[in-house]
Every structure is written in structure tokens, then in C-alpha cells.
């Protein structure tokens, strides 16, 4: 591996020029994602009078790429120059999004074009995100990956707090078509900074049958006890969180609570993620990776079980505090878990390892949504929320059972 930091493996990531470029690219790309997440459905509604089913299809197609192409994407990325692939993914997403305001301007926009754009942009996002996680160990010395991932997860949570609000403000200020144009500009900006990264990543792997390469990635994750525990615990947590979140609006509205309060509750979770990401590096250094993962999960289990208590009066405040505390566990788990995955995986398997995790975690989100709908219809939305809360409260036991397989530091 040719991992270096600039300059001279400094602990201070702000001195690492290439990491600064990757971080700036991530800011631009994620801001663009927030814009399109809001602006594309709004444009469909305003310009095309889209139905609820059509808007739902747009949302589903935006994430379908991770399930359809997640596993083969890892093998393709391990064969490719990851930095060039990230630039290509950014430019492709920019071109796709530019086609939307252009079609709107010439009055030829259709909902089918929006379907194609969000799906293909999702393919680009899947490739970019997997490549980004796979190139990071080359840009940042593996000993400092926890600090680098802490900054990236904190970025995600910070945008979760203010990104939707900023996107909504921009859409209302300039309109959905111009907001999508700004989204495309963000991807171009991301491509510029990725192109400025100079650290040499691992050389592309030799081409072999695709099925064999995918099987190697799956086998690497499933044979390693620590990675396997991380994958299953993450899948249980994602499924459980989705069960809670899908039913939350129904329970909230049914309780007669104001819509702005729901936004504040969700923002409290993002604040928790930010706090957890900030504390993750210190927790890992003091407790070790495995203990940091399962101990904070056990500590937060009572908070998770308070989430279904959401309701008028004190119930809303209890749920907001519980969601913030649960979010802090998510922040720690994301930083420590992603860093551990990168540290124990050989360079040649990074793309496939990350794609296996992305496939499992995104698949768990889809399963959670379906399970919430099934339990909500069969029993009640509140019952589905209790099922999700139970999963969040118990997911740490998977990590506890595998604790001896995690590194001591």
C-alpha cells in the first residue's frame, strides 16, 4: 500500500491537502444531494402535476441503484482508478441533472425523464460513495482513519440539521428548476476537488469473472467475525430505525402535534449523530473498537425503548431526547465501524467490502419500510414503532457476542 499523509503523516488532518480536497468534494456533493432530494419531487408536482404514486416512484428510484448495482459496483470499483471514477460519477450526475431544467425550459419535461434521471444519478451516487470510502485509506494513514471518518460523519449530521432547511429556502427563493441547476454545479465543484487529489491509491485489481469477484467480497465480510457482526448489527439497526421513522409521521399527526415539531424532533437526532461522531475517536482510544461499539449501544438501549412514547405534552419531549441519544450511538457506530472496516480490509478488496455493506444496509432500510407497513396495517402504527424500538435496543448484543474478535484498539 502506498498510503501517505501530507505532510508527513500528521495527526492534524487539516494539514493533509488531499483529505481537505476529499472533504470539500463531499460537502459539495452532499449539498447537491439535499437539493435534488427536495427540488426534483417539487418540480414533478408543480410542472407535471405528478400524483402521489409518481412522487413515491421518484423517491424509490433514487435509492434503488444501491440494491440493484451495489454488489457488482464494488467489483467494478476495485478494477478501476477510484479517483477518476469519482470524477466521472460527479460529471455524469451533473449532466443528468442539467437535462432537467433544460427540458423544463423547452417544455418537453416528462415524469419518465425524471424517473431516468433520479435512477441513473443514484447509480452515480452509489459508485461515488463506495469509491470515496475505498480511496480514503490511501489518502489518510490507516492509524488516522477514525479522525477522518469522524469529520465526514459530522459533516453528514451537520447537513442533516441544516441541509433540508437550506435546500427548502433555496428552492423557495429561486424555484425548483434553478435549484436543480445549482445541484448540478455542486457536482461539478466536487469533481474539481476530487481531480486535485494526488495521493496514489492502490493499483486497480486484475480483471476476473465478475461473479467470482463479488463472491470474494461477500466471503471477506462473512468470514471475518468482526466484519460479520458489524454487518448484521448495522442491518438490524437500519431496519429498526426505518420501522420507527416510517410510522413516526402517522403517529405524530394522529396525536394532533404540529408539523414543525416533527422537523425539530428529527433535527434532534442529527444533533445526536454529530455529538457521537465528535466523541467517537476519544471513545475508541479509551475503550477499543469493539467495546466502544457495544457499550454505547447498551447504554442507549433504554432511550431507544422510550421512542414509542411520542405523543402530546411530555411524550414529544421524551421522544426528542431519546432520539438525540439514539443518534449519538449512530454517530459513534458510523465512525468506529467504518474506520474498522477500512483498517482490516486489504486495499484490493476495499471496493467490494464497502459495496457489501452498502447493499446490506440499504436492503435493511427497504425491509424495515416494508415491515413497518405490514405491522402497521396488521396491528397499528404504534406497534410497528415498538418493534423498531426493540430492534434498536437489542442490536448491540450482536456486537457483544463477537467482542473478542474486535481489535483491542
List keywords for this structure.
409 residues, disordered N terminus, mainly alpha
Summary, kept brief:
The chain has 409 residues and is mainly α.
Provide structural commentary.
With 409 residues, this protein is an all-alpha fold. Helix content is 82%, strand content 0%. Helix 3 (82-105) packs antiparallel against helix 6, helix 5 (145-174) packs antiparallel against helix 9 (259-287) and helix 8 packs antiparallel against helix 13 (381-394).
Fold blueprint:
Layout: H1 17-48, H2 52-79, H3 82-105, H4 111-139, H5 145-174, H6 176-195, H7 210-223, H8 225-254, H9 259-287, H10 289-306, H11 314-344, H12 350-378, H13 381-394, H14 396-401
Amino acid at each position: 500500500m502506498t498510503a501517505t499523509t501530507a505532510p508527513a503523516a500528521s495527526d492534524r488532518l487539516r494539514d493533509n491537502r488531499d483529505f481537505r480536497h476529499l472533504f470539500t468534494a463531499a460537502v459539495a456533493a452532499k449539498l447537491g444531494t439535499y437539493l435534488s432530494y427536495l427540488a426534483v419531487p417539487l418540480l414533478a408536482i408543480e410542472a407535471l402535476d405528478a400524483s402521489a404514486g409518481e412522487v413515491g416512484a421518484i423517491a424509490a428510484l433514487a435509492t434503488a441503484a444501491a440494491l440493484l448495482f451495489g454488489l457488482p459496483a464494488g467489483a467494478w470499483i476495485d478494477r478501476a482508478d477510484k479517483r477518476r471514477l469519482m470524477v466521472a460519477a460527479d460529471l455524469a450526475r451533473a449532466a443528468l441533472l442539467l437535462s432537467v431544467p433544460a427540458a423544463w425550459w423547452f417544455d418537453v419535461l416528462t415524469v419518465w425523464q425524471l424517473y431516468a434521471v433520479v435512477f441513473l444519478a443514484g447509480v452515480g451516487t452509489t459508485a461515488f460513495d463506495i469509491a470515496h470510502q475505498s480511496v480514503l485509506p490511501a489518502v489518510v494513514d490507516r492509524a488516522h482513519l477514525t479522525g477522518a471518518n469522524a469529520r465526514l460523519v459530522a459533516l453528514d449530521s451537520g447537513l442533516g440539521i441544516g441541509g433540508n432547511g437550506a435546500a427548502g429556502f433555496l428552492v423557495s427563493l429561486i424555484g425548483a428548476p434553478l435549484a436543480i441547476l445549482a445541484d448540478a454545479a455542486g457536482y461539478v465543484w466536487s469533481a474539481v476537488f476530487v481531480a486535485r487529489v494526488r495521493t496514489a491509491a492502490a493499483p486497480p485489481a486484475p480483471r476476473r469473472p465478475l461473479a467470482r469477484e463479488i463472491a470474494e467480497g461477500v466471503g471477506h465480510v462473512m468470514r471475518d467475525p468482526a466484519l460479520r457482526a458489524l454487518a448484521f448489527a448495522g442491518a438490524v439497526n437500519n431496519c429498526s430505525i426505518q420501522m420507527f421513522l416510517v410510522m413516526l409521521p402517522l403517529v405524530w399527526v394522529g396525536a394532533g402535534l404540529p408539523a414543525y415539531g416533527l422537523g425539530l424532533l428529527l433535527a434532534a437526532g442529527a444533533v445526536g449523530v454529530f455529538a457521537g461522531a465528535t466523541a467517537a475517536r476519544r471513545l475508541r482510544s479509551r475503550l477499543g473498537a469493539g467495546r466502544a461499539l457495544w457499550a454505547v449501544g447498551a447504554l442507549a438501549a433504554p432511550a431507544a425503548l422510550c421512542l414509542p412514547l411520542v405523543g402530546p405534552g411530555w411524550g414529544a419531549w421524551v421522544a426528542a431526547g431519546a432520539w438525540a441519544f439514539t443518534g449519538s450511538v449512530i454517530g459513534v457506530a458510523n465512525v468506529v465501524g467504518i474506520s474498522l472496516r477500512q483498517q482490516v480490509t486489504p486495499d484490493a478488496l476495499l471496493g467490494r467490502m464497502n459495496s457489501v455493506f452498502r447493499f446490506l444496509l440499504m436492503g435493511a432500510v427497504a425491509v424495515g419500510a416494508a415491515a413497518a407497513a405490514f405491522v402497521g396495517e396488521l396491528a397499528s402504527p404504534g406497534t410497528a414503532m415498538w418493534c423498531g424500538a426493540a430492534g434498536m435496543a437489542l442490536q448491540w448484543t450482536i456486537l457483544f457476542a463477537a467482542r473478542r474478535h474486535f481489535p483491542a484498539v
